[in-house]
Model the fold of this input.
Amino acid sequence: MKDFLFGADYYPEHWPRSRWETDAVMMRDMGLDVVRLAEFSWFKLEPEEGKFDFAWLDEALEVLGRAGIKAILGTPTAAPPAWIIASDPSIEPVDSQGRVHHFGGRHHDCQSNQTYRKHIARFVTAFADHFGKNEHVIGWQIDNELGNSHDDFCHCPSCQARFREWLKGKYGTAEALNRAWGTEFWSQGYQDFSQVTSPMITATGGNPSRDLDWRRFCADLVLEFHEFQAKIIRPRSPGRFITHNLMGFCDKFRYDELAKMLEFVSQDQYPGGHFRPNPSADRSAEMAAELDFVRGLKDQPFSVMEQQSSITGWEILGRAPKPGQLALWSLQTVAHGADAVIWFRWRSCAMGMEQYWHGLLPHSGIPGRNFEELSAFVRQLKPLLRDMQGAMPEKQAAILFSYDQEWAARIQPHHPDLSYTGHLMSYYRALHARNIPVDFTFPDRDWSAYKLLIAPLWFLADPGENEKFRNYVKAGGTLVLTCRSGIKHPSNLCITDLPLPAGLTDLAGIEVDEYDCLRDCENTVLWEGHAYPCLKWCDIMHTVSAEVRGTWGGEFYAGTPAITRNAYGSGAVWYVGTEMGDDLALAVIQALEKECGLSSAGTADKGVEITVRRKEKSSWLFVLNHTDESRSVDIPKGWHLLQGTEGPVLPPFGFRIYSKEK
Ligand code: GLA
Ligand code: ZN
Done:
């Protein structure tokens, strides 16, 4: 499927023609196999309507091809040129405050606008006709980071009309919509779909049910926008893949649905982030979680389409990556399932907003420290990465991810700091600290391979999903439910006439009588004789059939259940009525580790990550020191060192790779 291992994002249009050969030869000498090209070059490819200039890109492909470098082409639809916008300014998106976002940056496009769709159809058809069968073109990326810069989505008249159509398709009648949204409240009833609007700025708070449907609609629109282009490309470019550069936990649309339409997914991985103030702080768990999440989208290895290659920054810059750190970050992606790494970007450019988002080569074009470090990394890793293609971590524990739950929690977080990804990270960090492999799975998948399934903040309870939970546990699985689960219908209306967690009560074996939002304070949980901090929320509950494992340490409900375990079928359901602090999460995960028979990849000091990838006959073990100090490691027996130096201590930002026959 993929015939590349290493690459760079390359912008030949930023450089004189006379430099291209030098770049191609340097790429070849570095060991790169592929470049991604053209995803922001519409104006250069179509300087006026219907007048295409593909010659420069033909030539770039030829120059690169001569050096053995293949290409992934991006459709440049995340930055329509000024002449398109001038011909119809209604293409520019409108935010929820009614403000137009104008030309001059990128993503200045509305994805439902029909004039824009016509321009896309014309351009992408010609582009794919011309390049689709080019021997150097191996695949495609449609648009760029779909969902990026769409914080507020588009509320233009075209999107409003599409929203109404979408609602009509979902509800059929205005009465059904009124029921689903609870429009008796504040006299929000509609006589007809024509009266419905998107959630633009209101005088007061809005309607959580409308907000949730709006998120669902916008997510569908992004997928449709992608498919619109994919349908043009596929027949014109046989045998080539389509992938997309995703942004980890970005929640603008359903990545799991997009993944079904792609040959493989790709991730954009910037551990230094956008001007992150302290990149030396250990964010290895957060980085690892995003990689595990992206791998989970297709439950197969992925590519990295943009991997940090130097200092990041736009107006403000981040820290300089320390010696060893770029190679370590690149290896972390491999350790979590990347089969290919493409660095962003080949060379720091002299123009535009991203002058200081540095590349493998600095502005001077003269190789420096980062280039040498990553060149050595390519030499070291290339044979290994070739062997490792397709290898995956073992299935043991999974976090169940649902965009509907994410959106519901975002619309009404209850506590100002409670967030879906923040909450799931409290579990992920503990599993990561124990070096237990974590998958992310999704509601429509088969969960049976997992001994432990964690379903964080399961706000919206769908009867079919409740049944799926039951079957999973009956068959022997261990399910963890958390506070704020089973509280709402999928419409985002509260569940009534039942104690909480409503349809999950028999599974959890508890009933939630009341709750306490921990604004500006913490509470504790008494767990195995110690008091551990817990945050943001406490469910006040009594047991029905569950055993009490932890109790609240403070407040008027001190001594009542906080964490419970209910034997159910051949499995068990844990209910955690709070967001656990890291120490408590670690203690609880260790109890679950024992109960479920989870196995750790190894033990090491804090800040050292250990992962394993396996395939038919071989396994590989990665040890990564994310700290700027030496760290001790204890490698399980039977592994042979492939890269790095043996010994009890790993140097700052050092790594080792081991292998063994299964
Ligand atoms: C994203 C985009 C790239 C570039 C980088 C750096 O990941 O996909 O085009 O803008 O960020 O800002
Ligand atoms: Zn719009």
Remarks:
- The two ends are 25 Å apart (CA to CA).
- The longest strand covers residues 510-517.
- The mean pLDDT is 96.
- The chain has three domains: 6-152+225-387, 397-596, 603-661.
